[in-house]
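Continuing from yesterday's entry. The apo prediction looked reasonable, so today I'm repeating it with zinc ion included to see how the binding region is handled. Same sequence as before; SMILES copied from the compound registry.
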Amino acid sequence: MTDVRLREEICRFGRSLFERGLTPGSSGNISLRLDDGGWLVTPTNASLGFLDPARIARLDAQGKLVSGDAPTKEIPLHTALYETRAGARAIVHLHSTHAVAITMLPEIDPMAVLPPMTPYYLMRAGQTALVPYFRPGDPAVADAIKGLAGRYSSVLLANHGPVVAGVTLEAAVFATEELEETAKLYLLLRGLNPRYLSPEQVSDLVRVFGLTLPRHDEHGH
Ligand SMILES: [Zn+2]
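Holo prediction written out below.
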């Protein structure tokens, strides 16, 4: 895809996410890795609903601004995941309500934030890790993401929001949406003793769709 098309795609998905209330105000940011090793990154203080393709930050392979507005200050979230997650070509970070809400619940397992509720959550988002709360701008959040060693394509920042990688921007957006909707389902069903997918049903999905779930192998089922 050409540079122009990629910029348009960032704006189109950004507007779609914003208009559906998935990230308010000027929160949230999107990045794309380019073939030359550089990046396109949404600008600082920009609403995802009103992006201008020409003002999207273009960074070189060293992360230096080549053109456009200054990139989001949350760029360490993106670079930490690109550095550790082989094959990540696009990253979406949102402040989406239900995903943020579940990070504050006491029972959350930081290595598998949500139970296996639907096949599409597992197929698109995989499992999700939770990293602790960090003050916005604290560089330690990047170390926490790197500490997951790229095993997760979707990470939740406590009291903040999801960071999700994909092999394309569309894949990263769809995975973020699955994470948000599954968090919503979890909250709807919390305390109602719901029936999640069984270990056998999860194993079947892993086998048929070739999924890599970090926790699945550890438990050996
Ligand atoms: Zn944020």
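Comparison notes:
- The longest strand covers residues 161-166.
- The longest helix spans residues 169-189.
Will overlay with the apo model tomorrow.
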